[in-house]
Structures
1.
Amino acid sequence: MANRPFIVGNWKMNGTRAMQAEARAIDRGAARHPGVRVAVAPPFTLIQTMAENAETMAIGGQDCHAAASGAYTGDVSAAMLADSGATFTILGHSERRAMHGESDDVVRAKADAALAAGLEVIVCVGETEAQRDAGQAEAVVCGQLDGSLPVGEGVTARVTVAYEPVWAIGTGLTPSLEQIEAVHRAVRAAMIERLGPAGAARPILYGGSVKPDNAREILAVPEVGGALVGGASLKAADFLGIVRGV
Ligand code: PGA
């Protein structure tokens, strides 16, 4: 059976308990769209409450540490995410790669830890504007996948890739539909190479300035199996507008 389109909200460092009304509205909306898989990754502080209250949407983390426990002040392990009710985590987001110096190796170690804790992983990749201008978008993305995608028996069914061009995140800019398709086809080939035939079945999300008014056309691009949504996931009306666009 083909995967349902997967629409994931990344709340980043936004949201306090005052966001509960928004979360409930997203959850109710998700129940009205059973053909779409809806998920939200709130800050750590909201995971438990949102997971306890969610009836339809999945709740996940935005990052985790690669170690199971230990002297890592300020960090959260994959097992802690799972214990809080998270069922997945985003990893290797470009903001983590850029602001926290996360290499492909680090992302891969985190992915292995998350999978071992029973979570699904959404591994993010994407080129900078300079890399795209230099004609390297596909090469950069495939290099990141080569270094950061987990491999191994039984993990494939829990691995999703999100292609997020760095220059499209939070800028209102998006690649052309042809550019999105070209990178998604390259990601698909890399997934099959790395994960085997099962890599053909996993969703590849597009992320970067997805809004209600461009979601429908982006989600119709071949090999786009969903969206990772930042800014527009903070308002239920906008996020559900994207869900409806599927
Ligand atoms: P944006 O962010 O939708 O605000 O561009 C996407 C992301 O960073 O996941």
2.
Amino acid sequence: MTETLIEALERARGWLKAAGRVLVITGAGVSAESGIPTFRGGGAYWSGFSPNELSSVRGFDANPCLVWSWYEERRARVRSAEPNAAHRALAAYTTRADARILTQNVDGLHLRAARGLGTPSAANDPIEFHGSLFKVRCRRCHRPGPNPETIDASSRDTLPRCLRPHCRGLMRPDIVWFGEAIPEENRLLSIKLAREADVCLVIGTSLEVYPVADLPDQTRDTDGKVVEVNVFPVVRGTTNTAANLVGKAGDVVPELLAGLP
Ligand code: OAD
């Protein structure tokens, strides 16, 4: 017999109540209800575009205007979007519990939800594991630079450039592209957090991209539990180790976290 959502919620809430540390992993699905497309599936980013053309160093070197115009469109869409009920519930939860958010999203909505609660910049800020749409760094010397308000991608001459006089390389989005490694400090931190967590709460991700895809199993390897919130769940396991909460993040996450210490 399959478990109902209410039964799975009860089990997941029991684990969260008993938990010392919690790692929250999020993906594009947590921002879907803010109007940001996911990457995979119908109407998603990768269904109409080529990841290699738009999100790789090779693609950028071949056509930086095309890459920047795609990112500028995403930046504009995110600027006019708002954090949803899931982002807000998570922001409140991570201020009161020993819980840390690690997001694959580059939209900054977790951070905006935290600031919306008046939470100052803190050691507990969400980890933006794949970078941010609102950070740039030099393609040539790799140094970060100020985030331009808007980017004119109509020609190579109007694209943002490194401010260092001896460099003047093109600036690129500070995002981990295909074929690039996660910065070592963040990679090691993610493994530490996953292994120390009593519960790994996985929200709105297809878990198709490594190394994030491995993290829930790191929690289970150290006797922790995995709770998943997804409209199409992907985490497998017995009722002793996993709870699949099937539904939209904006509905399920506030319900899951309400009243938890
Ligand atoms: P995907 O597009 O692969 O997966 C989105 C997941 O969200 C799917 O499992 C959906 O079922 C689920 N979903 C959709 N709407 C939802 C909702 N309202 N509530 C809950 N779940 C929902 O996105 P990611 O797993 O985040 O990397 O993709 C991982 C990485 O692949 C991205 O960070 C991106 C991409 O290539 C980079 O660009 C570096």
